[in-house]
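Minutes, methods subgroup
Present: GH (chair), OT, SY

1. OT presented the first of two proteins processed in the latest run. Sequence and structure tokens recorded below as shown on screen.
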Amino acid sequence: MNILYKRTHSDILGIIASSLCLIHCLFTPFLFIAHTGSVLYQDGYSVLWKSLDIVFLALSFIAIHRSTKTTTNPTIKYAFWTSWVLLLCIIVNEKLSLFPLFEEVIYIVSILLVGLHFYNKKYCGCKREKCCAN
């Protein structure tokens, strides 16, 4: 069975993706400060580093999609998707600078997603593998 189709594996993927997103967001300012004087690294790291937002967003979408298909708690489904939409809006706003927003908001949403995946993994699962599948 594919790793993404097991509920616990999708929660683990979500924990990893959200944690890496959080680490990415925490270290981005330090990376750019460290390379402010270097013209050589500015463009290359900038494009690669900024594209990781989209990668983490896609991974979290996959993890949330699979986790919400098999969770036993309907409130968790809404919490997952609300958090993901918030994360999407924050990243789109960061890319397009639509309105001023505190940088710390993305940390809160990332931590929330990690916590939701931990909670879902521990309390909202089935005892049998197929009991929650659609």
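2. SY then presented the second protein from the same run.
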Amino acid sequence: MDFAVISGAAAGLGKAFSFELSKLGYNTILIDLPDQGVKDICTDIECKFNRKSLCYEVDLTKIENIVEITNDINKRYNVSILINNVGVGGTKRFNDADVNYLNTIIQLNVMATTIMTKQLFQNLKKQEKSYILNVSSMAAFSPVAFKTVYPASKVFVHYFSRGLCEEYKNSNVFVSVVNPGPMKTNPDVTARINKQGVWGKIGLLSPEKVAEIAIRQLFKGDRLIMLNGNKFNWFVLKVLPIWLRLYLLSKAVRRELKNK
């Protein structure tokens, strides 16, 4: 019995991935923080789709926690899909952001993605055909003031994924990266998107739609998944000089701070 492992699965895009894969007939292992409702999601999946769904409630900012749960997964389950969805962002002036805030972004977006992949890679290699999908962001294509560390962390996810894909292109493990634009994944994110005005809403898609497209393209062998609503954004970001896109995006994000 093969399983799909999804991190950050209690809400938003992670939850949407969990339901999409269950709908397609996959058993799932869901990972999120304690007391975020991930157990209820497992129960819901088993009732709706008649698929096995298990969970680990753990803080993925701690490397020892990742090593512990992945060792347990490797001993007990066959993993054919890994979705590194866990991540966090936010909008703050760099001087106002405390060390824990910055460290959480780095640990979840960079460390957790890397170590989860490393720990489960041999498990994935044992299966006939396996997939890794890392969740980056449209923010990976431009620096943005007042977010500083978040876009930088997503550049890491993007380059890490592309490099790993090339390294193992002749193996049974296929690696892809998806770069979603704005998604109203929770009330806080929704409020921040609304404050950004028009720029914040270009390419806006629901988590369910992003998950549906991303999984479909993953299985088709798409190494770089650009969602339909974001292809125009990606083209514009490629064409505009960095100083101009930095100015325009930062101006949109600055509205979040003014409206707080």
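Chair's summary of item 2: The chain has ten helices and seven strands.
Next meeting: continue with the remaining queue.
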